[in-house]
Amino acid sequence: MTGKLPIVGQIMATDLVTFDPDQEILAAMDLLITRRLSGAPVVDAEGRLVGMLSKKDCFRAALNASYYQEWGGAVSDYMTSPVETIGPDMDVIAAAEAFLSSPYRRFPVMSGDRLVGMVSRLDLLRSLAGLWR
């Protein structure tokens, strides 16, 4: 490895699918399935990050439906909040350490109070593998 380490801002995804907290959970689940996403950020009307909705969160909605024999509810009923985030200037080694100490598969990337991207374990693994090639 030579040179400066890549930073999260260089490897993160910036074309994001986001959910509204009031969005119907079934519509959100359909979008996760059709877009083959493991999760997406939930942002309010002002664009503030208020939660994350993952496949695991959607299992809660499905189990709730099986118990009560009806689907429904808002994304905010099932999302995870508060959300762990990382910054775009974090180097890939520090980001890898954040993933190792966390159960999450993706982190929202925040610049101040603004959502600027998402970084996944796969994004990071690709970058780390490239360091030694």
Roughly how much helix do the residues carry, as a percent range?
25-40%
| Number of domain units | 1
- Calculate the mean pLDDT score and round it: 91
Structural class assignment: alpha+beta
> Count of helices?
5
Main sheet overview: 2 strands, antiparallel
Shape: elongated
CATH superfamily: CBS-domain
Determine and state the CATH class: Alpha Beta
Number of strands: 4
Summarize it.
The protein has helices spanning 8-11, 25-34, 55-68, 92-100, 121-131; strands spanning 39-43, 49-54, 106-111, 114-120. It has 133 residues and is an alpha+beta fold. The protein has one domain (8-131): CBS-domain.
Walk me through what this model shows:
It is a single chain. With 133 residues, the protein is α+β, with helices and mostly antiparallel strands. It has one domain (8-131): CBS-domain, CATH 3.10.580.10. Helix content is 36%, strand content 18%. The chain is built from 5 helices and 4 strands. It has helices spanning 8-11, 25-34, 55-68, 92-100, 121-131, and strands at 39-43, 49-54, 106-111, 114-120. Strands 1-2 form a two-stranded antiparallel ribbon. Helix 4 (92-100) packs across helix 5 (121-131). The longest helix has 14 residues, at 55-68. The N and C termini lie close together (8 Å).
What topology does this entry show?
Layout: H1 8-11, H2 25-34, E1 39-43, E2 49-54, H3 55-68, H4 92-100, E3 106-111, E4 114-120, H5 121-131
Antiparallel strand pairs: 1-2, 3-4
